[in-house]
Amino acid sequence: MRIAIIGTGYVGLVAGTCFADSGNDVTCVDIDERKIRMLQAGEVPIYEPGLEELIKKNVREKRLFFTRDLTEAVTNAQVVFIAVGTPEGESGDADLQYVLAAAEQIGKAMKQYTVVVDKSTVPVGTADKVREAIRKVTDIEFDVVSNPEFLKEGAALDDFLKPDRVVIGVDSERARKVMADLYSPFVRTENPVLFMDTRSAELTKYAANAMLATRISFMNDIAALCEKVGADVDFVRKGLGSDKRIGYPFLFPGVGYGGSCFPKDVKALVATARDYGLELDLLRAVERTNERQKKLLVTKAAKHYGSLEGRKFGVWGLAFKPKTDDMREAPSIEVIEGLIGKGAQVIAHDPVSPHTAKRVFGDRIRYASVPYEALEGVDGLFVVTEWNEFRHPDFERMKTLMKSPVVFDGRNVYDPARMRELGFTYYGIGRR
Ligand code: UDX
Questions:
Q1: What reaction does this enzyme carry out catalytically (predicted)?
Q2: How many helical (H) and strand (E) elements, i.e. helices and strands, does the chain have?
Q3: What is the ipTM of this complex?
């Protein structure tokens, strides 16, 4: 099939590469000239394990192309994916200007029957708006499909190539056949393509993210209660997760959820409901808990030290989660801003995100190129992202480097009893 993907962000680039790898002819379009030039030269603008190799392979085998020319890409395509950004609008709702601008351009460029697919995370009713925007500028036949993406950063290729399910909102038999054909290499009996109407597909995406965010905030609340009553959240988590109806994933308490999806999508869902006169109180509480959680480590530190003025702290982990260089809504921002705001100095290490972090913090903090460098003479260490390299450090070496051996473990990566045995003052989340 000939495919055009509009928008080479996380979702567009991964989807385009995976569709090319399954034998399609894919052209990825972006207005960002620098990005397109980088991609044409075989460089990948984001860090995602395995992506660079897969892009190179498909470029070499001439199935994957990058261009700024939307018209040319769309004219030749049978299926066009809209994968542009949907940033947060003024009242928390998703801003659709880029999606609708792309729709209009697609309408103007189409030369034959085309399946136009909303891949961006878009509020309920967007497929109808996209259809209207295209209809206004063309008489050519087309269908609009909603196909939200569920991939996780850091595991994007695996998630795309072996999805739990593919959700497709479609109201035409012709488009349904095209989509079934396109996804047939990625699906098996146990991970089906679920066909439904476009509104249900659009809502499924938000509901999934809101449910996962709810689990995290719920566990963060339980962790707070554990600390009050003298229980250990790690036992409680295992006890809960072993119930098959509940399951283990997404029950890890921590420094709050971040990233480009959960915070934005929870807000957008609340805003959509409000547009329809419905107040989603549960999700508003989920957000409140998350705000509190992002501040928790600094609250604990302020209590431990009294004043943070003039103190120096190490931070391990800046990206919003391991295996990505993405800093969007990263809990490290709240932690570091909190520390700096209280007059402390920060030296931070992250295995892959110093370049993205520098855009956020500039020279207001120092960057360590190896983890131990972030410990020299510090009053304490904050572990904010659970990168594997932080899991089994040389604790004795840490102690000799640090001015005082205090660890604020925002991801519960260390065993509290062992840390105390080793002579650390240890603060976890919801642990005894
Ligand atoms: C998420 C969804 O998982 C994905 O389906 C959707 O398409 C996009 O949003 P992503 O943002 O890449 O993916 O990251 P994810 O791994 O889901 O983590 C989100 C945040 O929740 C991270 O900040 C992570 O640290 C946090 N988290 C996750 C927890 O605090 N506890 C957990 O148990 C799991």
A1: UDP-alpha-D-glucose + 2 NAD(+) + H2O = UDP-alpha-D-glucuronate + 2 NADH + 3 H(+)
A2: 16, 14
A3: 0.93
